[in-house]
């Protein structure tokens, strides 16, 4: 991948960042020297992309200099701009889940291998918050199809349970059920939440339910009417977006992630003009929260989506019917 920055961030410092994950799933973090800027905070390894250097080339150099390892397998996670008072930074973050060598702090920095669930126990620079969000999100976001009337729910729930149990990929769920009234939706949500919890899958609901361990997903219309109190009412907030203005609204609200659509043409919305991958990346380069690609997506589009700045892909039918991505 080239080292070129989006034009509006050409004066930002371009930083290549690696989320190094070993075979057990442990994540490597290192601690900044006390006398360095933001000294004592923990961070992900990486450093400045030099003039004429590619991002993956910069990562290989930094991993060798800082840790003494060589990446053998890696893919993009998130690209994000962040403005500190003293300097703007543009972070190019990659997951490195294959490497040669044994990591050590070659520059005298303490390093630790931790579970990803332990990330919130450590203090990181503010710009790293979106990286931590992205690391805790799945590659695939399943939006459920209409569950039908209550008589049809057993079949719907059985299929969902089988889908999650047989899933060979990182998956999370948004329960969408536009045909149900509020009481029916919450009744179904309780059963869906139980299935998701048993399978270790994160769940987003389209209505607030304090009694369930689930996040809240907003439509674009709800996003435009939302305020900070709504952000405080849920531990995980997401929103559907269709343009850069809505993405910026989601970012300002403090959403943990967004869905951007339609990326490609869809049968369900034939009149909608697709964004295409170039426009998708242009938009995601301007915000600092993870974004899923939605609209005409299949599980096989994951690599393409990630190469264009996506957290992953979101879909209804393609992921509902797909046995393994």
Report on this structure.
The chain has helices at 55-67, 129-135, 153-165, 182-198, 220-225, 228-232, 244-253, 276-284, 302-307, 317-320; strands at 13-20, 27-31, 42-43, 46-48, 70-83, 88-100, 111-114, 140-143, 171-175, 203-205, 215-218, 237-241, 257-260, 291-294, 312-315. Helix 3 (153-165) runs parallel beside helix 4 (182-198). The chain is built from 10 helices and 15 strands. A hairpin with a 4-residue loop joins strand 5 (70-83) and strand 6. It is of the alpha/beta class and 325 residues long. Strands 8-9-10-11-12-13-14-15 form an 8-stranded parallel β-barrel. The chain has 2 domains: 7-134, Alpha-Beta Complex (Nucleoside Triphosphate Pyrophosphohydrolase), CATH 3.90.79.10; 140-320, Aldolase class I (TIM Barrel, Alpha-Beta Barrel), CATH 3.20.20.
Class from secondary-structure proportions = alpha/beta
State the shape. Answer: globular
Q: Which range best describes the helical content: under 10%, 10-25%, 25-40%, 40-55%, 55-70% or over 70%? A: 25-40%
How many structural domains can be distinguished in the coordinates?
2
The CATH architecture name of the largest domain reads: Alpha-Beta Barrel
Q: Name the CATH superfamily assignment of the largest domain.
A: Aldolase class I
| CATH topology annotation of the largest domain | TIM Barrel
Q: What's the total count of β strands?
A: 15
Quick one: biggest sheet? 8 strands, parallel, barrel
Following the backbone from N to C, one meets helices and strands in this order, namely EEEEHEEEHEHEHEEHHEHEHEHEH
End-to-end gap? 25 Å
Number of continuous helical runs = 10
Parts with pLDDT < 50 across at least 5 consecutive residues: none
Mean pLDDT: 92
What's the CATH class of the largest domain, please? Alpha Beta
Main-sheet strand order equals: 8-9-10-11-12-13-14-15
How large is the radius of gyration?
Answer: 20 Å
Estimate what percentage of residues fall within beta strands: 25-35%
């Amino acid at each position: 991948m080239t080292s070129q920055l989006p034009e509006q961030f050409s004066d930002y410092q371009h930083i290549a960042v690696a989320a190094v994950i070993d075979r057990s799933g442990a994540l490597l973090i290192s601690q900044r020297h006390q006398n360095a800027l933001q000294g004592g905070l923990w961070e992900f390894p990486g450093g400045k992309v030099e003039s004429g250097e590619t991002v993956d080339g910069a990562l290989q150099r930094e991993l060798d200099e800082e840790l003494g390892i060589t990446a053998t397998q890696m893919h993009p996670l998130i690209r994000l701009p962040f403005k500190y008072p003293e300097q703007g930074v543009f972070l190019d973050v990659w997951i490195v889940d294959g490497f040669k060598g044994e990591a050590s702090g070659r520059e005298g920095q303490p390093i630790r291998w931790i579970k990803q669930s332990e990330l919130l126990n450590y203090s990181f620079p503010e710009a790293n918050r979106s990286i931590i969000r992205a690391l805790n999100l799945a590659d695939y976001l399943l939006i459920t199809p209409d569950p039908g009337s209550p008589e049809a729910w057993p079949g719907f729930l059985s299929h969902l349970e089988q889908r999650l149990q047989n899933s060979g990929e990182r998956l999370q769920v948004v329960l969408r059920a536009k045909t149900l009234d509020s009481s029916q939706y919450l009744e179904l949500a309780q059963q869906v939440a139980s299935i998701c919890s048993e399978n270790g899958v994160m769940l987003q609901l389209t209505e607030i339910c304090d009694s369930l361990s689930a996040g809240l997903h907003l439509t674009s219309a709800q996003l435009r009417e939302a305020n900070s109190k709504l952000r405080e009412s849920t531990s995980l907030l997401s929103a559907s977006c269709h343009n850069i203005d809505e993405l910026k609204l989601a970012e300002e609200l403090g959403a943990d992630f967004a869905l951007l659509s339609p990326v490609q043409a869809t049968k369900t919305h034939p009149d909608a003009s697709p964004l295409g991958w170039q426009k998708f990346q242009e938009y995601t380069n301007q915000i600092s929260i993870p974004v899923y690609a939605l609209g005409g997506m299949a599980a096989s589009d994951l690599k393409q989506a990630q190469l264009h700045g996506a957290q992953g892909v979101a879909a209804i039918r393609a992921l509902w019917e797909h046995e393994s991505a």
